[in-house]
Each structure stands twice: as C-alpha cells, then as structure tokens.
Specification:
- It comes from Amphora coffeiformis.
- Keywords: Redox-active center, Signal.
- InterPro entries: Selenoprotein_Rdx-typ, Thioredoxin-like_sf.
- By secondary structure, the protein is α+β, with helices and mostly antiparallel strands.
- Helix 2 packs antiparallel against helix 6 and helix 6 crosses helix 8.
- It has an 8-stranded mixed beta sheet with strand order 4-3-1-2-6-5-7-8.
- Among the domains are: about 90 residues, Glutaredoxin; about 100 residues, Glutaredoxin (3-Layer(aba) Sandwich).
- Helix content is about 40%, strand content about 15%.
- The longest helix is centred in the N-terminal third of the chain and has 54 residues.
- It has 9 helices and 8 strands.
Length: about 325
C-alpha cells in the first residue's frame, strides 16, 4: 500500500514537471507558429517565381508569315487571313506574331510557321495546292503545328468534334481562395521578329482590349500608302501578364507611336506622316499631307482700283 502511494506521488511529480515545462515553452511556441504560417506561402511564392523565371522563354512561340502577291492585289486576303488566325488563337501563347510580306512573285500566296529556334514549315503554298486554303483547314494546320491539343470548335474537323466532350472545352472556373500562379510573359517584342524583309513595320496591340481590328486597319492603311516602301508588317498580340492598353508602332525597331506615352490613339494621317519621315521624307502624301508652304500675301488695292472694282461688280 505504501509502495502504491509512493508511485502515485512519483507519477504526480513527473506530471507536474511536464506541465510546467509545457507552460514555460508555451509563449515561445505561440510566437513561432504564426511566423511559420507566414513563411510557408512566401516559400511557395518564391518557388513559383523561380519556376516562372526558368520557364519564361519563347522557345515554343511560333511566328506565322503570310506572303502574298502584291500586284495580284491579294493584300486584303492576306490581312483577313491574319485577323482570322489572331482572333482564333487570341489566348494561345504559342502564336506570338503574324507577319504579312508583299511579294513580287506572281501568284504567290504561302503561309509558313517558324519557331524561335529558326525551324520553319510551310503550311500552305498556293502553287502546290493549286488554290487558296479554306479558312478552317488553315486553322487546323496552324493548330497542328503550334498546339495540337487545342480544340477549334466548329472550325475543327468533324471527326474531332464528335470525339470531343463539350464539357472539356468550357472555361475553367478559378478558385479565388487559392493562390493563383502568375502567367509567364512570353509576349514577343518587335526585336524578336527576325528574318523578315526591311523596312519592317510592327504594331503591338492589347488582346484583352480587343484592338486587333484597329491594329489590322492601321496596318492595311500604311501598307496601301507605302506599297513600294514597306516590305513587311507584323501584328504582335500583347497578352497577360503584359500591361493592358498597349498600342505600339515601330519601323525597323524605332518607336514612332506609343499609346502609353501619347495618351491616345494616333490618327491615320499622323502615322502616315511619321512613317514617311522615316522611310521616304520627300514622298508626297496628297490631301493628308501637312501644308508647309507659306501663305501668299494679299495685295491691297488703292482707292481708284477699289472704286473700279465696285463699279465692275455692281456694288456702289
């Protein structure tokens, strides 16, 4: 019985000692836990940024070029083709640019895809195909080259439409309660567009602002006005995470208009004058040109001449 009581006392003693130790370490634990909970997200964020920096390259970004016969007046067909491709692949980072190249070769209409490593493949050649491509066929060829897993909806093949689950094509709903990774910036810059004829015009536009039509219209106007001077024009979509509201025009890498700096869009005649000053300073632009000629001074009449003029016109 005495041994049992002593055992209880020993047990109580060790229990009290353990409790006191826990109480003494309690404030330190409380100070450590919040610090740790704050640090873990930062570690994940840092790791994500490291991965983003490692993946932030344009190795898989493709450039599409469209060569068209200039004298055949196929410019509108070329620009329409470019707009269709840029509209369909508006949110696809794998399509970084579409370049239109007026060609002196009679009957030329060719579409080529090129990766950043310089490898290129001809998707369509009118001489070999003996005609122009159907737009949905061309979209499928571009898709197969830049992003084979992408579904094109009604522009896709009948077989692929039958095999694709409509639920798989729906937009993913983002869970805002979870931290979302920042998208990689793989937008091409004007300097990234290589191996194109010069003078080379580029127009970078914000895709989120839906400025493709504006950019294409401006490009067509400039190519029409400078049909002999401009040898290539590139439309460059600017997607997230690039800053929204971009509308940048360059000629051979020199910026002639930046919407961020100017605070507005350019008038077409303004751009034509700016391009003229870079490419062909002496070129006359007709009715849209700025008249720099001095005003002709008006000669004053003396009293006798004024009286004769009033008599001639019947004004007394």
């Amino acid at each position: 019985m005495m041994m049992t009581t002593r055992s209880k006392h020993v047990h109580v003693f060790f229990s009290m000692t353990t409790l006191i130790g826990l109480l003494l370490s309690f404030p330190e634990s409380m100070a450590f836990v919040p610090q740790r909970s704050r640090g873990i997200p930062n570690l994940f964020r840092t790791a994500a940024r490291i991965r983003m920096a490692a993946d932030d390259d344009t190795s898989n970004v493709h450039q599409i070029s469209i060569e068209y016969c200039r004298r055949c007046r196929w410019g509108l067909r070329g620009f329409w083709t470019a707009q269709e491709l840029l509209s369909t692949f508006r949110d696809d980072d794998n399509l970084g640019a579409v370049t239109l190249i007026p060609s002196a070769t009679p009957g030329r209409f060719a579409v080529t895809a090129k990766k950043a490593d310089g490898k290129s493949v001809v998707l369509w050649n009118r001489d070999e195909a003996e005609g122009f491509p159907e737009m949905k066929d061309l979209k499928q060829l571009v898709r197969d080259e830049i992003n084979p897993a992408r579904f094109l909806g009604h522009s896709d093949s009948t077989e692929r439409q039958e095999k694709t689950d409509p639920a798989e094509t729906k937009d993913t709903i983002i869970d805002l309660s979870k931290e979302q990774p920042e998208p990689n910036d793989v937008n091409l810059k004007p300097k990234d567009v290589q191996d194109v004829p010069t003078p080379h015009l580029t127009i970078s536009y914000c895709t989120g602002c839906q400025w493709l039509l504006r950019a294409a219209y401006v490009a067509q106007e400039l190519v029409s006005t400078f049909s002999e001077e401009i040898h290539a024009v590139t439309l460059l979509p600017r997607r997230r995470p690039a800053k929204g509201g971009a509308f940048l025009v360059t000629v051979d890498g020199a910026i002639i208009w930046d919407r961020f700096e100017q605070g507005r869009f350019p008038e077409t005649k303004e751009l034509e004058q700016l391009v003229r000053d870079v490419l062909h300073h002496s070129k006359h632009l007709g009715h849209i040109d700025v008249k720099n000629t001095a005003a002709v001074p008006v000669e004053e009449m003396d009293d006798d001449e004024a009286a004769e003029a009033r008599k001639f016109f019947g004004v007394m």
